[in-house]
Every structure is written in structure tokens, then in C-alpha cells.
Amino acid sequence: MSYYVAAYDTEAVYPWWDRPQDGFSYTPEHIAEFLEGVDAVAGVHLERNAPASFFLVAKMLELAGPQLRAILDQPLFDIQCHTFTHPNLIALRDDKNALQYELADAKKLIEDTFGRPVIGLTAPGGYTDGFRGHPTVLEVMWEAGYRYVRSVGKGPNGTLPALLDQPFWYTQDGFPELLETPSHAWHDNILTGQPAQVHWPPLLPWPYPDKMPHDAQGVYRAYAPGIDYAVRHGLIYYMPIFHPWSIYRVDKQAAQITMLLDDAGAKMEITSCTPIYHHIHRHPALAADKM
Ligand SMILES: [Zn+2]
Q1: Which whole number is the average pLDDT over 146-160?
Q2: Is residue 78 in some structural domain?
Q3: Tens-digit pLDDT profile for residues 204-246
Q4: What spacing in Å lies between the alpha carbon of 191 and ligand 1's midpoint?
């Protein structure tokens, strides 16, 4: 049985298209559009009764907490953490106070807002090897109560797309009960125009699009072969990387998500991240490095 894991990195719009010279902002801009994007994605999932995880940048709760709660506080949704302000966590590995803020304080704000435990983290940007070799980051995570992390989210040398890495325990770094659940394929924001390094030659087991997708159908086609690949090769799961703001920028109805869920739902079971963590926790040998 292979799962399609629906997970959304929930941060605000990243406006490289209006002001590339000023750099980027993940948190304080375009709040209304951000909320519309979250609502569009949530709506597609609610219509299909399809579970999803939303990893929240906690700063967005300071800016729009009641609105986010109104959209996301549903039994179908798993609410987890995407740090407080979306920094590069490995760059903060020697700054314990900053890690506490980004990991422990963010977790507490999300837990207080939704009244539910947070045990999962998505690392901003993602890395080729995740937090392997970064025990100081893993230690703050573990102490704060995280039990799984999506920190593998890039291909070789920090390029895109991410490959189809499967879960592993951080045993070699001293945290045998902390699970990595890698994310897969394109980052939809980069697939649809945000500058980043893309690996050449192609490394995914299906072709790159021949041009940048501008609509829902094009985004769907760039991700969909992963569904059949995961089924055919018996992967534990396929977890493509998506952002509500970026989905919404391409299609106001999030039709790329509708198409993926309809396709996946016919071939696999759709789930969210925390149930996948519990499934692997019950069957630890499904992930590598278990001693
Ligand atoms: Zn992010």
C-alpha cells in the first residue's frame, strides 16, 4: 500500500515578481491573498473529504490567527509547524536562542491557537540531506517535542527537484526516535517561476516539463507521474511539495490540487503527515537506520 501524503507549507506570498531587488519576504505581505490561497486549498480537501497537513509559519498566526483558525480548524486537517519566521535553520545551528524561538516558541503558539499538539516540522527551503550531521538542530527539536521532520526537500547540491527519498530515523545523529519524512519532486513555487537552481540532467524518474507551467493542468502534469511511480515501485508514500500562496497564484480554485487528489485517490490512499508518522512508528522497520 502506497500513500499520497498531502502537505502544504503555509507561509505568505513570496513577491519576487514585484520587487526582486528588495529581496524576499515570507511573512508580512499580501495577507488577504495568503488567506484566500489557504482557503482554496482547504476547500478542495474538504469537498473530497481528503486529509491534509498544513505546516504553519507561526508569524502568520500573529498576523491572522483567527482567520487561519476559521479556515483550518477542521478534524480533517493536521496542523503542524513551519518555524516562526521561515529562516534557514542550518544557518542557526550554533544559536540556541534563535532555534528555541523558531522551533519551540513557534510550536507553542500553534498549539495554543489550535488547542492541539504539534509534533511535526517542515524545514524552510529543505536540504539535500535534511538535518543529517546537524545534531544541535535535532536536539532543540527533540527537546521541544517534535517527533518527525520534513527537512529533506532538495536534490543533489541543493538543486530542484527533490528526489524520492523515503523515511529514515536520525539514529546516526543520536536521535533514534526522531523520524525524517522526506518531501518529493518540484517545489510548486519554483516550478512556476521563483528563481532557483534546477538539476541538469533530469534526475526524477519522469521527464521535466518542456516549458514552465502557467496553469493548473501544467502543474498537475509535472507532479502526476509520481503517483504511478510510487504505486509501481511500492514506495511507502509520495509527498509532493506545495504552498497555498503559490497554488493560488496559478489557479484561484486550486484545480491542480483537485486533479492530483482525484488521480491519487483512485490509486492510493490519501493521508496527511502525522498519520504517516504514527504508521511508521508502529512499524519502525519501514524507515531506514532503525537499530
Ligand atoms: Zn516554506
Answers
A1: 98
A2: yes
A3: 999 999 999 999 999 999 999 999 999 999 999 999 999 999 9
A4: 14
Ligand 1 mean position to 112 CA, how many Å? 21
In a domain, 263, yes or no: yes
**List of E strands, the chain:** 3-5, 7-10, 52-56, 77-81, 120-127, 148-152, 168-170, 175-180, 184-187, 237-238, 240-241, 269-271
**52/7 Cα distance (integer angstroms):** 6
When pLDDT is cut at 50, 70 and 90, the band that residue 154 belongs to is: very high
Tally the domains of the chain: 1
What is the CATH number for 275? 3.20.20.370
**Distance, CA 94 to ligand 1 centroid (Å)?**
21
Query: How much is the pTM?
Result: 0.96
- The strand pairing partners of 269, in sequence order, are 3
Q: Is 80 helix (H, G, I), strand (E, B) or coil?
A: strand
Query: What local confidence, expressed as pLDDT, does residue 20 receive?
Result: 60
For 183-195, b where at least 16 C-beta lie within 10 A, e where not — what string? Answer: bbbbbbbbbbebe
| pLDDT band at residue 19 under the 50/70/90 scheme | low
CB 89 within 8 A of CB 83: yes
Cα of 12 vs centre of ligand 1, distance in Å, is 9
Cα separation, 156 vs 289, in Å, equals 21
Which residues, other chains included, contact 104 with Cβ-Cβ below 8 Å and sequence gap of 6+?
A: 140, 143, 144
Cα–Cα dist 40/231, whole Å: 28
C-alpha cell at 65: 490567527
Taking each helix axis as running N to C, give the angle between helix 225-233 and helix 255-267, from 0 to 180 degrees, rounded to the nearest 10: 20
